[in-house]
Amino acid sequence: MKKWIARLGMMLFVLTVCASSAAADVTAADLRSVYDQYCDAAWADLSSDGTSLSLDTNPNNTDDYTNFSAYLAIEPVNKALGLPGSVFTRMGSTTSMQGVQTATAGNLTVSWSYHPDNGMEIIYFID
Fold this sequence. Notes:
alpha+beta; 5-stranded antiparallel β-sheet; 40% helix; globular
């Protein structure tokens, strides 16, 4: 009986640790803060209600162009919004043949696509 209780206690500890590492909910204020800290209006847009943030590494769809400020902002934006590093890795390896990709952490969903002519387009939105 004591062994069973000890195992149950260990399982509850493991479940508690796993649950506490879950992504925290993102608010409109969080998106506003991320926009203010990492983004530029030339390549980013925050929706009027603050529930979505979009980034575009080639906002004018100019051939053979990448706005490196926009590209370099992606990783710190992801981190600030609580997305795991694997999302940035997936973003960097997305091809035009894959279409729109998505990831979710807590109440935040991010979708992105890449095309050589249009760059990477990313939308973060609160569910």
